[in-house]
Amino acid sequence: MLEKVFDSQDLPVSKRVAAWREITASALIPNEFGIDHPTEFRASLQAADLGGVQVTALTCTSMRSQGTPQEIRQSDPEMYAVGHILRGQRVTFQERGGSALGAGDLVVYSTCRPYQVVMEVQPGTAASVMARIPRAMVPLPSNRVERLLAAPMSGREGLGGLLAGFLTHLTSDTSPCRPADGHRLGGVLADLVTAWLAHHIDAAGQVPAVAGQHTQFLEIQDFMRRKLGDAELSPATVAAAHHISLRTLHRLFHMHAHGATVTAYIRRQRLSRARRDLADPHLATRPVHAIAACWGFPRPADFTRAFRTAYGTTPTEYRREFLHGQPGTLR
Fold first, then answer.
1. Is the peptide bond preceding residue 123 cis, with omega within 30 degrees of 0?
2. 199 CB contacts (<8 Å, ≥6 apart)?
3. Which of 1, 122, 150, 270 has its CB 3.0 to 4.6 Å from that of 295, i.e. a possible disulfide?
4. Dihedral sign (CA 32, 65, 121, 84)
5. Range(s) for CATH 1.10.10.60 in the chain?
């Protein structure tokens, strides 16, 4: 999904800091850096433009950065920036707010305002993923959103957990992304950020209907992924858990799942998780039927039939081919 933009390991040590300054000024926004040990500096940057929504994944050794009033006047793209901390410690200051952030936290700031960021990690590199969203795509009162600038918010539960999970998925997804897919994902991300911010400023009633539907669909997907091991998971139990009718659930999937039905989505996710476990060397001694049961297939014959239909081979043959290189048929 994200493409490599910069990796300090590709450059001589003496050129890394200057190259990082140049690439972040073009890929992010111009800013000033403070790096105490330039010869030890390491960093990487991956990025994707999703229909105007920009997503970047960064790693770096300890450093300080700031956006000055002069730089902002010259290049303000008028965006909200949402950061999710994956590793290390980060202190962010903007307006009258400031926060100390750790792994799992979320933060929002505005490209319209001066800011300061201090990233600390010893040893190794800090890691984060950031989404920059045009303010015009977040239809909430800016004066209320700005009360949240630089405030620490959890990315472990609720809408925050959903947003953090979505951002993390974008950084780990290696599948090719067509322009139409990018625009769709950017729209979904903007809607999710809107719903997340609205929750924190108590303005859920101002979230557009389409954004609310996107968020509800993502919540339902997240619920189903967490319940895949429950053999009783079904469209009826999903609808009941979210206090909606079956008709509403099917309509949401018809609108947002590109034609996949609820039942088909559950089956595909279960099979995908089971296939992953069958290919895991650490689970090589675990019986196939136990893996199947773990992912919601209590009857081995049903699992074998579904697996063969999806992948053109039996679970046992797949495991033998993947782990031992013995003849089999994979696709």
1. yes
2. 158, 159
3. 270
4. negative
5. 227-331
End-to-end CA distance of the chain: 22
- pLDDT tens track for 150-208: 999 999 999 999 999 999 988 887 777 777 888 889 999 999 999 999 999 998 888 88
Quickly tell me which residue has 């090719």 as its tokens: 176
227-331 topology per CATH: Arc Repressor Mutant, subunit A (1.10.10)
CB 110, CB 163: distance < 8 Å? no
Question: For residue 104, what are its two tokens?
Answer: 């799992």
Percent helix, strand, coil in the chain, to 5, is 50, 20, 30
Residue-level pLDDT at 178: 77
Strands of the sheet containing 32-34, edge to edge, are 32-34, 63-67, 115-120, 89-94, 97-101
Q: Quick one: fold of 3-224?
A: Jelly Rolls (2.60.120)
13: three-class secondary structure by DSSP: helix
* Residue 62 CB neighbour total at 10 angstroms: 21
Q: Which structure tokens are listed for 276?
A: 């992953």
Token pair listed for 48: 């994707």
* CA torsion angle 213 214 217 218 (round to 10): -150
Q: What single letter denotes the amino acid at residue 20?
A: W
Structure tokens at 186: 């950017």
pTM greater than 0.70: yes
User: What Cα–Cα distance (Å) separates residue 227 from each residue in 6, 90, 234, 266, 293?
Assistant: 38, 33, 10, 9, 13
Would you state the structure tokens that stand for residue 306, as one six-digit string? 């579904």
From CA 131, how far away is CA 119, in angstroms rounded?
18
